[in-house]
Structures are given as structure tokens and as C-alpha cells.
Amino acid sequence: MRKKIVAGNWKMNMDLAEGLRFAELIDQYFKDKSMVKAEVVLCTPFIHLPGLAELLKQGKVAFGAQNCASESSGAYTGEVSAGMLKSTGAQYVIIGHSERRTYYHEDDNMLNKKTVLAINNDLKVIFCCGEILKEREEGSHFIVVKRQLERGLFNLSTEDFEKVVIAYEPVWAIGTGLTATPEQAQEMHKYIRSLVKDRYGIEFAENVSVLYGGSCKPSNAAEIFAKPDVDGGLIGGASLKKEDFCAIVEAI
Ligand code: PGA
User: 215: CA distance to ligand 1 center in Å?
Assistant: First the structure.
């Protein structure tokens, strides 16, 4: 049985006090629930991580970052390494989010370096892939996602790939209110699993969690999560509202 995961991506939101207060509310909510089927992960700005380690240590909620450096240490002003993330107690890191690819020009090669460093530092990687609107309209979305996965992930050993969760996030659906239909999500998730199968074998592919991200909300989550190859979600905007985020987790 592969793992179901719902991860919140806070992006650049919430100062230290706001973030810790919010995480405490989420933690409290899930402490009282015995029937939650998904692992809940909060991916926050770096500043929250040490505080979250303290706050979440007795609970069920996991946490991580939204990025890490592509080098392990040294003269890289402003960067935070995978080893530093690990030292806070973080368990996860998002790599390859489309906002990083677009605004910070992170290419496949750099994302592969980040992924390798994260795994070497014993972090789990939520690796994002997805096409822009023009690529979907042209019908090249499968080619684009295949290239992102081949270049970003497929040099990993089987053992290392066990630390990877894939998030399919069509860029045209992120923060736009447009969501992929459950059928579009299923079609791409199935394709992603087939690529993993071709590279790592069928048994392995069946155990890889593939999350959907892009304007996921309480009103559409259940329908998307019900698809056989969708194993949860990476949630942006709706992860900043307690009721919405909790409802999405419970939609699994
Ligand atoms: P959204 O963002 O849920 O606000 O569309 C998803 C993401 O960027 O991970």
C-alpha cells in the first residue's frame, strides 16, 4: 500500500509567530483524530523550521522546507543547505516547484543536484513537475513531464528513489483557481507511474506516491483524490486556512 500524503506549501507567507501559531492549530486538530488516512506535512519558510521541530515533536504532523541549496556548503551567500535543513529536524523538502523553476531559473541539472544532496542528508524529497498552459495546449505535456522526471530524478538508485514523492502540478492550475479535472490528473499520474515503472520496475512504481497540486480545495479534493493513481496533494493557497487544509486532508 503506498503512502497517502497531503502537504501544505505555505510559500512566502506568515511571519514566525503567525506560522508557529498556525502549525499548532493544525497539530492540535490532528492529534484528536485517529482516522486520518494521510500523512500531513507542512512545508514552510526556513525560519519556522526549528520552532516546528519543538512544537510538532509529540504529534503526527511532519514538516519540511520548500527549497534547498544545490551545493553542500561554502561561499553561497543567502543559501540554506540540505544538511542545515536536516539539522533543524525537518523531514521533507520540496524541490523543483514551478515558481523556483520560473522565477529563479532552476533547471533540471540544478534540481537533480538539489535532490541528490537532500537524499544524501536523509530528507524526503517532494519533487514537482508539470507543464505550462502553452505546452498543454500544444499537446506536449507528456513530453515535458517525462523530460523533467528523466533529468531530475532518473539517475537515482532504487534505494535513493524510495525517498522521493512526485508532485504533478500543472503550472496553469497553480494559484489560478483553474484545476485539472480528475480525469486529466489521473491520466498524467498514470503516465508518471508508467515512467517510474519503465525505469525502476512495476513493484517499485506501485509504491511511489504521486501527489496532485494546483488549486486543490475542499470542493474538488475528494474527487481528485479518489482517482487510483492520485495519492494525495500538494496544497498552496488552501493550506493557509485551517478549515480548508484540514478538510482537504480529510478528503483522502
Ligand atoms: P495552489 O498552489 O494550491 O495555490 O494552486 C499549489 C502549489 O503551488 O504547490
Answer: 6
β partners of residue 62: 41
Q: Is 105 an annotated catalytic residue?
A: no
Q: Is 241 exposed, middle or buried (0-12, 13-18, 19+ CB in 10 A)?
A: middle
| Residues 6+ away with beta carbon under 8 Å from 132 | 98, 171, 172
Nearest partner of 192 among 116, 123, 141, 138, judged by Cα: 141
Mark the ranges of the chain whose per-residue pLDDT is less than 50.
none
- Quote the cell numbers at residue 32: 484528536
Residue 33 has a pLDDT of 83
Q: What is the pTM of this model?
A: 0.98
* 97, 106, 189, 250: the active-site residue: 97
Q: Give residue for cell 475542499.
A: 218
- Tell me the three cell numbers of residue 202: 512495476
The gap from C-alpha 19 to its chain's centroid, in whole angstroms, comes to 19
- Pocket of ligand 1 contains residue 130 by CB under 6 Å: no
